[in-house]
Write a structure and sequence with these properties.
The chain is an alpha+beta fold and 263 residues long. It folds into two domains: 149 residues, no CATH class; 111 residues, no CATH class. 29% of the residues lie in helices and 30% in strands. The protein has an eight-stranded mixed beta sheet with strand order 3-4-5-2-1-8-11-10. A hairpin with a 5-residue loop joins strand 10 and strand 11. The chain is globular and about 55 Å long.
């Protein structure tokens, strides 16, 4: 199944690449909206071509170009016989993410590789388990053993961030993003050791990777709790980012409290 192979590439790229992750939510007047987590992996694409010894300037072989959207519900219908033959764990994962979609844009020659997992929702309550759904989507890859092998790599001790739970709350007064960490979370253990050679290499590789958050509301924003955030000209969109390395150490750095202006 082609889409499973695509997912395998995506998961490995997300886990190993120097990419920027962007979490975007756009709210409508009725409380519904759209949620999208996207991964800009253009740098990963360039590094892969370099490691494989490919010359991007060569005109003899054109790179792959792709601009497509996979709707999981449609995949389940179109490939129902193949999905029925999958292991129970993967079938359950497909059922969990059936209301979501996956977007991919790829242009190998120009170093473009963007991937996103999204959900159009009618109520913010549908975002209650969005993190779990995203992890389920990632679990559909065909290279799960390779991903699990990372637990023995320098990245291994930071993988517990995937066990954190993020909740979203929207009221007439404001909006809150809140992260709950696992009960055994130890911030000291997740810190990087600047004297450790493996950690040094890891930090150098991901020094330009960020987690970007962008939220758009139908109301104007009066105040917000996070530093270095930027507002759009109409004060309805807030954008902020943190280093991906800092995020791995403390996922709560992305949490925010927003108060709406009285209009």
């Amino acid at each position: 199944m082609k889409f499973v192979k695509v997912l395998a590439l995506i998961v490995l790229a997300i886990c190993f690449s120097n990419c920027t992750i962007k979490e975007r939510i756009v709210f409508n007047d009725d409380g519904g909206g759209s949620f999208l987590v996207s991964y800009d992996m253009g740098e990963f694409m360039k590094q892969m071509k370099t490691q494989m010894g490919e010359d991007s300037s060569s005109e003899e072989k054109k790179g792959e170009v792709m601009d497509t959207t996979f709707v999981f519900k449609d995949l389940m219908e179109n490939y129902k016989d193949s999905i029925a033959a999958l292991p129970e764990e993967k079938r359950e994962a497909m059922e969990t993410v059936k209301d979501m979609y996956m977007k991919m844009t790829m242009d190998e020659d120009n170093g473009v590789f963007d991937f996103g997992i999204g959900l159009d929702f009618k109520s913010i309550k549908e975002l209650t388990d969005i993190g779990e759904k995203i992890q389920k989507a990632k679990s559909l890859n065909a290279q799960n053993d390779q991903v699990n092998a990372m637990k023995g790599s320098p990245l291994g001790k930071f993988m517990d961030y995937e066990k954190s739970n993020t909740t979203y709350d929207l009221t007439v007064e404001g909006f809150t993003r809140s992260t709950t960490l696992p009960g055994d979370w130890n911030t000291d253990e997740t810190k990087f050791d600047e004297n450790d050679e493996s950690d040094q290499e890891f930090m150098a590789y991901f020094e330009n990777a960020y987690y970007v958050v962008e939220y758009t509301f139908p109301k104007k924003i009066k105040s917000y709790s996070i530093e270095r955030a930027e507002l759009s000209n109409d004060n309805k969109t807030i954008i902020y980012k943190v280093s991906w390395l800092d995020f791995l150490t403390d996922p709560k750095l992305l949490d925010v409290n927003i108060t709406f202006a009285n209009e």
